[in-house]
Amino acid sequence: MDDDEPPETEIKDESDTETLPVPASQNSDETLYCEAEASSTVEKEKPARESSETDLEIEDTEKIFTTGQKELYLEACKLVGVVPVSYFIRNMEESYMNLNHHGLGPKGIKAIAIALVSNTSIVSLELEDNCIMEEGILSLVEMLRENYYLQEMNISSNHLGLEGARIISQFLQRNTSSLWHLQLSGNNFKEESAQLLCQALSANYRIKKLDLSHNQFSDKGGEQLGQMLALNVGLQALDLSWNHFHIRGAIALCSGLRANVTLQTLDLSMNGFGNEGAMALGEVLRLNNSLTYLDVSSNDISNEGAARISRGLEYNEHLRGLKLFLNPLSMDGATLLIMSIKRNPKSRMEELDISNVLVSEQFLKMLDGVYAIHPQLDVIYKAVQGSSSKKTIILWTNPLKLIQIIP
């Protein structure tokens, strides 16, 4: 019946597409993947996009809305030459997508990004440790220009470096996406990256939660971040743990915190604040009205630094959690901390973590008096076995010896 029809017009029988020319409605100057849909092995796939197409912007807008999510992703994989990720296909209608440690690389990320341009389901996207580098982050940024549904994205440990920081900074300066939670941990960001990111974040009000931990910011980066915190009006949670801040960087960060009115949660653990930084933190706690949780674990803060922090706790009315774990504190420093809370009737402290400090029965009696005034408070400390306490970490037992004695 098809033999009576003109060879190049109104082709109805899809089984003849192998020998017939491309319809005029498609771009005839570019090559298409043409497959016989009658074959059971390719029954679920649509024709792939033009092989010359390299951008995320697909010119044929009608096809974007008529092609299913799965088919669009499979097309994109053919386009960039990667194997499709079955987990992505199975879960692309869910709100949470975890593609951590999938070895996607820049091309795999590009295929994912093409599929996400029109995706309205995924709200949270995990892409940690996929070696996406600058090319991959550029694809994601292009996708975010069109996708207003994605709100949380984790691109930690992806070797982004300075160029990746530059691309992200340019994206953040636009303030156009719906993204509010961004994780950038472990991306080899140094001082130049800090400058770029801080310039963007100084005027950005959409990012509420930011993770910059496990990078290589030092004191100069601390100065940049301090200036950013003084201007930023969006951040509510910031993770700067496992960097290289020392006295100068600590003082600069605290200077910015004194002017900040939105940040609620701050993680500064595993740095090198020392007692001088603790003194600056004490001043912040005396004046700041927004911080509710502060982590300065493992910052080389001794009893002298604890005394400085205690002075701020005597006046603070907003802080609820303070972590000082793995600092060289003794029971004397711990006593200063709990007594400062006792002297502050307006204190809202709920948790004080000094869990490496071994305390005495006398300390426990003082702590009972603090609990009487502030029943919401939990103090986490190290105590002798058998002591009755509200929250105690028992003396550590070597697990090798413990298992060896099991019959």
Show the helix and strand layout.
Blueprint: H1 61-66, H2 69-80, H3 86-91, E1 96-98, H4 105-116, E2 124-126, H5 133-144, E3 152-154, H6 161-174, E4 181-183, H7 191-201, E5 209-211, H8 219-231, E6 237-239, H9 247-259, E7 265-267, H10 274-287, E8 293-295, H11 303-313, E9 321-323, H12 331-342, E10 351-358, H13 361-373, E11 378-382, E12 392-393, H14 399-404
Parallel strand pairs: 1-2, 2-3, 3-4, 4-5, 5-6, 6-7, 7-8, 8-9, 9-10, 10-11, 11-12
Helix pairs in contact: 2-4, 4-5, 5-6, 6-7, 7-8, 8-9, 9-10, 10-11, 11-12, 12-13
Offer a concise description of the structure.
The chain has 407 residues and is an alpha/beta fold. It has helices at residues 61-66, 69-80, 86-91, 105-116, 133-144, 161-174, 191-201, 219-231, 247-259, 274-287, 303-313, 331-342, 361-373, 399-404; strands spanning 96-98, 124-126, 152-154, 181-183, 209-211, 237-239, 265-267, 293-295, 321-323, 351-358, 378-382, 392-393. Residues 1-55 and 57-66 have low confidence and may be disordered.
